[in-house]
Write a structure and sequence with these properties.
heterodimer, A: two-stranded antiparallel sheet, 8 helices, Cobalt transport protein CbiN (chain B), membrane (chain B), cobalamin biosynthesis (chain B), cobalt transport (chain B), CbiN (chain B)
Chain lengths: 239, 96
């Protein structure tokens, strides 16, 4: 039923990775800024702590690499099976190596770049966009990692799943953020959310798959070139 | 499985994922997602007025592509530099 609903709306593809400038009422903009701010502060704290207490010498280099990965992936507007294009988020790699938190900083830099120079996303909607992409995404990815570890899932598979779900959850969050503000005229908030999500499920899945594979590729390159020890992902670190 | 072999296989999968819709989806316009998101919002709430506009918009699609490319190549440059550097260092230390 859900799926059927999703397919019905496929022709009107909607998958707003970024909520555009001015597309959220002022109060909601303030709300999402307020929600995201503590995470941003925590991100700064984590960034400082990790670079100070790190016994692995490549930490700063790896910060740069994870940030660059977000930069690259969010510039790739890939075609999807629904006949439109969208882009991955790239937050999975950083989540695997540093856990959630630091991704907020990297993500906000990318979002600012796109808002200021590309008119994609916006300054008023920055809080909302940061929340979906740099907060919810990495946290979900992190939870997936923990779950995989508990279930003894193969490490590469775990990294793939982390990136996959981090990407997908970003879009699901955006769907809800929009649905709350712009409910469906007939079916209300849930109706709008189902509508957005039905579309997301179809649109973003192949892109999230691609992001998952790319994340594993870069991770392989990092490990096999001795930049990062296999053991020292976030899961081996004491919290 | 060796990492290199694994990477090649994964890369092929990624390329297939990207190429598949281009080849098999007929009538797809592959438009940007943001504009379509905006359109959907207007559908749900026709009375909503956009109250803020981007400070600066790329003057044309060409310029927009340029900046997107810059974003991608900047990131790729950093990644390639770091991995290339590490690779050279590893090779060097092996030879010594």
């Amino acid at each position: 039923m859900l799926l059927a609903l999703g397919f019905t709306f496929v022709p009107t593809v909607v998958h707003a990775m970024h909520i555009m400038e001015g597309m959220l009422p002022p109060l909601w903009c303030v709300f999402w800024y307020a929600v995201s701010l503590p995470f941003f502060m925590y991100g700064l704290y984590r960034l400082k702590k990790i670079s100070e207490n790190s016994n692995s010498k490549n930490t700063k280099l790896m910060f740069a690499l994870c940030g660059a990965f977000v930069f690259v992936l969010s510039s790739l507007k890939l075609p999807s099976v629904t006949g439109s294009s969208s882009h991955p988020t790239g937050v999975g790699l950083g989540t695997v190596m540093f856990g959630p938190g630091v991704l907020v900083i990297m993500g906000v830099i990318v979002l600012l770049f796109q808002a200021l120079l590309l008119a994609h996303g916006g300054l008023t909607t920055l809080g909302a966009n940061a929340f979906s992409m740099t907060i919810v995404g990495p946290i979900i990815g992190f939870l997936v990692l923990i779950l995989c570890k508990k279930m003894n899932v193969n490490k590469k598979v775990a990294i793939f799943l982390c990136a996959f779900f981090a990407d997908l959850s970003t879009y699901v969050t955006t769907a809800f953020q929009l649905a709350v503000v712009f409910p469906d005229p007939n079916k209300g908030i849930l109706g709008a959310a189902v509508k957005f999500m039905g579309i997301y499920a179809v649109t973003q899945v192949p892109l999230a798959l691609a992001e998952g594979f790319l994340t594993v590729i870069v991770y392989n390159l990092i490990v096999s070139n001795g930049l990062w020890k296999e053991g020292s992902t976030i899961l081996n670190e004491e919290y | 499985m060796k990492n290199t072999k694994q990477n090649v296989i994964l890369l092929v999968i990624v390329v297939c994922l990207v190429v598949f819709p281009l080849v098999f989806i007929k009538g797809g316009e592959f438009g940007g997602s943001d504009d379509q998101g905006t359109a959907q919002i207007k559908k749900n709430d026709p009375s909503y007025r956009v109250w803020a506009h981007p400070l600066w918009t790329p003057p044309s699609g060409e310029i927009e592509t340029l900046i997107f490319t810059l974003q991608g190549s900047f990131g790729t440059g950093v990644i390639a530099y770091i991995i290339g550097f590490a690779r050279g260092k590893k090779k060097n230390s092996k030879e010594e």
